[in-house]
Amino acid sequence: MESSSPSVPFPLLQAPVESTYRACTIPYRFPSDNSRKATPVEIQWIDLFLNSVPSFKQRAENDPTVPDAPAKAEKFAERYTAMLEEMKKNPKSHGGPPDCILLCRLRELVLRELGFRDIFKKVKDEENAKAMSLFEGVVQRNDEIKDDGKRVENLIRGILAGNIFDLGSAQLAEVFAKDGMSFLASCQNLVSRPWVIDDLDAFKSKWTKKSWEKAVIFVDNSGADVILGILPFARELLRRGTKVILAANDMPSINDVTYPELVEIINKLKDADGKISGVDASNLIVANSGNDLPVIDLSSVAPEFAFMANDADLVVLEGMGRAIETNLYAQMKCDSIKIGMVKHPEVAQFLGGRLYDCVFKFNEA
């Protein structure tokens, strides 16, 4: 479903998009700031991206698809570090002033220029296989919860627990390298409620009274995140008669699941009758959002996807990149959920919450 057509705004954003929508949540600078001098917030975020260079370099060194990978990984680290350092001195360099979209885009550009297309491929495949083997058990546990409100809360907790599998966070990449991730342990160890943004009770109350016609879910990471977090929730929506569109990235970025990968995952989870653990999945569609970053600018999506999503009455943005660092305050024409875990101290500080705090923002149209 790759498209050569020019991108279009996501049709469910409140219009006029030009004046009401701003993708990045955290302002790195204000109009009154000196345009030639990096602001303290810009420096803080540039440092965050600098801190992640070693873990990206290590992944790149071990990419079997790239000849001379170690030498090219070294070049990536040098080039990207030089760009970031230059932005500290001159925030207008490299297409600045910086925001989280530009900092992610520059990192991807340098990797791709050096031939690195998918440095997290191996770990994504391993985590997908591991999560697939646990899928049945997770949905079975959800199905055993008879109370609608309690079941949906359990599904939401599953999304948040799955979302911790994020190798774009330097701290989590380190934890992951040491111990791997246990989905069930993460479910049980979520920070206590109320979360830093916590509209779960309002959503539970709506869930018991209403069902939606069509939901669009912007997915995030591979592995436990999409397979044990998002898919059980999508399956529950399908069971309630909602059509579901899962929107995934066009191209690889960090350990985010891509459109072709998600198509393959869904096909493996379906049985011969097209059911996912007993639930008819004929109303489940995987779409290519046209995005190629771990954050998303909704003013620019693939036109085919926009057409498919046009009449949805629920939009779910999931993950720190798509739902918190971008789009937390994006206003939709329909009901919307922004859900994710806070995995950068800088985001926790901005929101006034704790590291590994949870965001569940529900807005009714």
From TrEMBL:
InterPro entries linked: ARMT-1-like_metal-bd_sf (IPR036075), ARMT1-like_metal-bd (IPR002791), At2g17340 (IPR016949), At2g17340_3_helix_bundle (IPR035073), Type_II_PanK (IPR004567)
UniProt cofactor(s)? Mn(2+); Ni(2+)
- Pfam families (UniProt xref): ARMT1-like_dom (PF01937)
Damage-control phosphatase ARMT1-like metal-binding domain ranges (all copies): 52-359
Superkingdom is Eukaryota
Gene Ontology molecular functions:
hydrolase activity; metal ion binding
Is Transmembrane helix found in the keyword set? no
Q: Which UniProt keywords apply?
A: Hydrolase, Manganese, Metal-binding, Nickel
Name-wise, this protein is: Damage-control phosphatase ARMT1-like metal-binding domain-containing protein
Q: Which species is this UniProt entry from?
A: Urochloa decumbens
Supply the source organism's classification: Eukaryota, Viridiplantae, Streptophyta, Embryophyta, Tracheophyta
